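Two proteins were folded this term; both appear here.
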Amino acid sequence: GIKASPPMLAQAVAQHHERRDGRGFPFQLEAGQITGIAEIIGISDEFIRLLVKSKTDRRIHPLQEMKQKFYDRFSVGIVDAFNRIFLIK
């Protein structure tokens, strides 16, 4: 159950809406304060949101939107890993 979950899991869930520029929530954390796991969940959450939105709005191109609007909100390593997974040609 939840009580038996590792503390880092709870921390990642609490931080997954945080962004490196301090505009996230609930704590307005900045670069260096957000765990890598939280960033992985966060970038995945943004991408899934765009994928869902693109189903009803064909003007939205999720990968382009990620690059234009969201990459600067995540650490370089997280963005590089995202690109390796989703931009394989």
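Next, the second protein.
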Amino acid sequence: MDGVLADFHGGVCDLYNVTLQQCLDMSPPPWEYAIEKQISEVLGHTVTAAGMWNLINHKMPGFWRHLRPYDYAQELYAALAHEYGKENIIISTSPGLNPQAFSEKVIWMKDFFNHCPTQMMVGPKKHLLANERHVLIDDSAHNISEFRKHGGKAVAFPQPWNDSEVFAETMFNHHSSIFINYIMWKVDHALLPSNNPVYQLNPYNPYKGELLPI
């Protein structure tokens, strides 16, 4: 959910009156998975993880419910639902440290995506859903590694804090259909056997329009 559909990092930046672009200007990717470190660079003083979460919790209720969806998010969700069936999409999310966080996330999914709350899993152990026919779309390299380790397939959602071959800043500069097609292609090919020739080529190179190896 966060980092794929919901702009959590942008929401945290708003709390400190900085922008994600300022963070990118100060700290070129790849980043650690810790937005407080990039915000510290912009502000010129240390923002700790504990301080960040305290600030988020002080903004409750409302922080999680009012996060912005990424511009392409509804189109991506609709494309996945059309291709694989809405009933086959499970939203996996960590709820944050405030007990109200999960209820706000459920409301957020219903408001923006009309997604059934019974198809949501709460908690950081996303690998519990892993099997050979399940594909995780995630922005966390750790989650992706754990999901694959437990027998699942996974797609790295391009963000400045993971090792995807493209960064979101580059992909987001293209028309949303290119970005969505790129993610859909990654999901389709995660389900293909690795010895399938089609698996070997990536038609969505955001840099030169050439074919890229996966």
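Strands lie at 91-93, 120-122, 135-138, 153-156. Residues 203-214 have pLDDT under 50 and may be disordered. These notes refer to the second protein only.
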